[in-house]
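Thread: "does anyone have the structure for this chain?"

Original post by V.I.:
We have the sequence but no experimental structure in hand. Need at least a predicted one for the grant figures.
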Amino acid sequence: MNGTSARQEKFLYLDGLRAIAILLVIIVHVSQAFPELPHRILQFFDFGKRGVQLFFVVSGYTLTKVYFGRGMDVAQFFTRRFFRIAPIFYLAGAVYIALGALGEFHYAARPNAFQVITTLLFIHGWFPSSINYVVPRGWSIGAEAMFYVLFPLLFATMSNRKVFLALAAFSYPLAMVVRLVLDRWGPGEGTDAAIFASYFFLVHLPAFASGCAVALIEPALQKRFAINWRALFWVLLLAVPAMALTKATSNALLADLVFASLVLVSALARPAFIESPLFTWIGRISFSVYLVHFLFLNALFLLQPRLVAAVGVPAGLVVGFAGVTVGSLLLSDVTHRFIEKPMIALGRRVDGMRERRKHGQGGTVRG
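Reply from O.Q.:
Generated one for you, tokens below.
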């Protein structure tokens, strides 16, 4: 097994967790097409929106695992992160702008130049008028990009684990204060203001910071505690639907803690089902799934009245979820193969050229 394959094998559980995250996101968006469902059922599915926070926790954990102990080349980091998210994100933006211009698209607005420019620069999350107006639910990509900007600074503090863990803990009251300030005095009006207060990057900093913290403490926990980690994994996994049945669904910070614990225990337990070929495949293509599933959701919104008339609301929800999920997975497998992976490889080549120029080897050809 080569080094790359060994690393992929080592982190299979992270792809499995990404699969859980994207399935949560899909179910909440599908349920929004069926407002006829009982309130209790809609509340249960509404917890799916916390799947984005699971993505954030996994992101913080992954980057810390990759870089901690081996150092960071900041230019390399930003180059590779850009080619990881920007090409497919920009393509999605172009597609949704075109669909919005054609009309009959549930999610797409018709963005102005400012909204497009801020989205291209990944700073749309700082403006209520831009945060979700080019790519549907694109706020999360903006938050991810802001985490990338902040990560080298966070990484610099990780050599002193106690200092970083204190910073991670501080992110929780900071998020509470930021949310309170934005709710009362934040920019924007009406729905835009409420969305901005809910989606602003600093409000979700605890998810990223918790993922980083878990990566730092996991090795020590594995050595010090002889616990049935697999049993604990199932307890935490069952806590997710339990939270969805309570008012805890509205508590983002509680979800951050639960998901951080789930990532930690998954790393220690390595449960077989989230490392299965199906779950790891879904996880690998989950970024594309997030971006493209709105295409299939739009079709569901258009077809929903006929679907409900034909099979009823509960069956319609099941059919809708299956259709959106399968369609998104099939299309995302294509975009992952032919857009994401080639662009990631291009990012590595660009970084390699930068390194050769840096060391005065621009004219050297290696076999």
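V.I.: this helps a lot. The first helix runs from residue 3 to 10.
O.Q.: and Confidence is low (pLDDT under 50) at residues 362-367.
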